[in-house]
Amino acid sequence: MAAFLSFSLLVGSAFAAIRRQDISSKITGAEYAVRGEIVIMSQEIEKELASGNHSYSFDKLIACNIGNPQAVGQEPLTYHRQVLSLLTNPSTIDDAEKTGRYPTDVIARAREFTPAVKFGAYTHSKGAAIFREKIADYIHTRDGSVLPRPDTENIYITDGASKGIQLILELMVTDEKDVILIPIPQYPLYSATVTRLGGTWVGYEMKEDYSASSPAWELDLSVIEKLYKEEVKKGNRVRGIVIINPGNPTGNILSRSNLEDLLKFCEQRDVSILADEVYQENIYSPQKSFVSMREVVLAKQSKVELFSFHSISKGYYGECGLRGGYMELLNVAPDVNDEIYKLSSMTLCSNTLAQAMTASILHPPQPGSPSGPLFQKEKNAILDGLKRKAILVEKELNKIHGYNVMPIEGAMYAFPMVRLPKKYIEHAEQQGSLADSQYCKDLLKALGVIMVPGNGFGQRANTFHFRMTILPKESDLVAMLKGLTTFQHDLYAKYGDPDKEKIEL
After folding, report:
1. Residues β-bridged to residue 465
2. Residues 6+ apart with CB under 8 A from 210
3. Do residues 39 and 437 lie in contact, with contact meaning Cβ atoms separated by under 8 Å?
4. What is the mean pLDDT of residues 217-234?
5. pLDDT by residue (tens digit) across 145-185?
6. C-alpha dihedral, 78 to 81 to 82 to 87, nearest 10°
7. What confidence category does residue 22 fall into, taking pLDDT thresholds of 50, 70 and 90?
8. Average per-residue pLDDT in the chain?
């Protein structure tokens, strides 16, 4: 047996059918920093902490690398989980009603959903009709009843927003001459997917001006226009432009005027819009409000092709693991819609329970309903907590010498710029690392905090950033921010203060 195992291992090694050097560069060239090198390091540290055999100054990790609310302590909303429990076991609906185990509006929703869908069976590839109707009702209410109601044939329920985004990018990209414009900083799903598909992505830098009277990340149409002309001059085709609103990793909210300016550009240049709006419930600035790209397109009676994406992973609900979301098509030709449907059909349908949860979450209990008081209490606690943490993180980060961060107006993230001394940058190079990657590695080892370096999202040349979420418990954030202050002080003491370097120059 031992001889056979040795021979098997030898054969497997010598005659590997798939070797990394044989894998398409479209795959090996795709990078996804949110779950990259720093996370792999954190997993090894977590094993050391669990074993008790370590020399770290902390006893737990603080995950600030990904928007995953329930992983860092957020509890699921009671109403939707009660509905889910009945949908997974519909034989208990009658018993729950007899015993009064669940509120009557939970039971009513379960009774509404279960006759329409067999949750262990495939649904229509766009999603079950009842759930697409619910999504259409939500969109219609959100954007104003004076605007046309969405056509359910233009709504696809997806396994989170990511699957819809990947599908539309696959539709747009045929070769390297197809260009997608992506905001910088961006969410790396976009660059990774375009690379994997063999297309070209070009980053348009957002304005990052800390000297402004009201600093905030904003679109710069002059930059977008310049990049468009450059790509056309190269003989490339600019197929689409991505907006992320509210912003990830920037935490900004785009104004109506920004959206209108972008729409005008797309009308003039025949460019489609991909509107990533998964954080539309995460609004913290009293001066800002979310405006959907769909509302702007319809209000302007524009014919620009729009693909809008939403998800149940974010907001105040945070149901990341259920993988539910939707995309809506607007001004998309019927024969193109047919091709999207064909692509969707290849994966049969999205998760059926997530379809139901998407419909349920977009139609929460109303005031006066049996579940209303508890639901409002839970929702307000989550959103109020996020707002407090957004203010706390912005305020405390801006106190740290060498840091600048924009107001966290929405979403779940801060993207601070950190000034690093020349000697530290050289130290990082000696370690074979980019300076902001090395910074995040050192932070992880010193504080147990998992951050994502700015180079994974894109950043202005000669600047360094990192992305952190505001999701951890307030007590953990307070301790982390205190630790960051000490860490930065010690780093400058060892490698020098970059502000003094500028003076010397």
Report:
1. 417
2. 404, 406, 417
3. no
4. 94
5. 889 999 999 999 999 999 999 999 999 999 999 999 999 99
6. 170
7. low
8. 90
Alpha helices in 75-159 (DSSP H): 78-88, 93-99, 104-113, 129-143
Determine how many CB atoms are found less than 10 A away from the CB of residue 269: 15
Sign of CA dihedral 203, 206, 207, 209: negative
Strand positions, DSSP E, 261-311: 272-276, 306-311
Angle at 354 between CA 351 and CA 356, to 5 degrees: 115
Q: Which CATH number fits domain 23-71+376-504: 3.90.1150.10, 3.40.640.10, 3.10.20.30, 3.40.50.300?
A: 3.90.1150.10
What's the gap between Cα 493 and its chain centre?
36
pLDDT digits (tens, 9 = 90+) for 299-330: 999 999 999 999 999 999 988 888 999 999 99
What sign does the CA torsion over 170, 174, 176, 178 have? Answer: negative
> Is the preceding omega at residue 90 within 30 degrees of 0, hence cis?
no
Distance from C-alpha of 93 to C-alpha of 86, rounded to nearest angstrom = 6
> φ and ψ at 63, to 5 degrees?
-85, 100
What pLDDT is stored for residue 280 in this prediction?
96
d(CA 122, CA 125): 8
Give the H/E segment covering residue 102. Answer: none
Burial track 283-319 (b if 16+ CB lie within 10 A, e otherwise): bbbeebebbbbbbbbbbeebebbbbbbbbbbbbbbbb
| Measured CA distances, 48 to 55, 61, 197, 448 (Å) | 9, 11, 38, 12
Report the sign of the C-alpha dihedral through residues 42, 43, 48, 50, in that order.
positive
Instruction: Identify the burial level of 63 via C-beta atoms within 10 angstroms of its C-beta, where 0-12 means exposed, 13-18 middle and 19 or more buried.
Output: buried
Structure tokens given for 167: 């599908």
Q: Please tell me the distance from the alpha carbon of residue 350 to that of residue 367, in angstroms, as a whole number.
A: 31
Query: Would you mind telling me the total number of residues written for the chain in this entry?
Result: 505
- 7-21, 40-54, 167-181: which has the minimum mean pLDDT? 7-21
CATH class, 117-361 region: alpha beta
Contact 389, 412 (CB under 8 A): no
Q: How confident is the model at residue 480 (pLDDT cuts 50, 70, 90)?
A: very high
Mean pLDDT computed over 186-190: 90
pTM, rounded to two decimals:
0.89
Instruction: Report the C-alpha gap between 402 and 416 in whole angstroms.
Output: 10
Cis peptide before 185 (omega within 30 of 0): yes
Q: Do 139 and 150 form a contact (C-beta atoms < 8 A)?
A: yes
Both tokens of residue 129?
């009709």
57 has a pLDDT exceeding 80 = yes
Residues with Cβ within 8 Å of residue 11, at least 6 apart in sequence = none
- Tell me if 103 sits within 8 A of 370, measured CB to CB: yes
* Domain locations along the chain: 23-71+376-504, 78-111, 117-361
Phi-psi region of 169 (alpha: psi -120 to 50; beta: other; left: phi over 0): alpha
Largest CA distance in the chain: 79
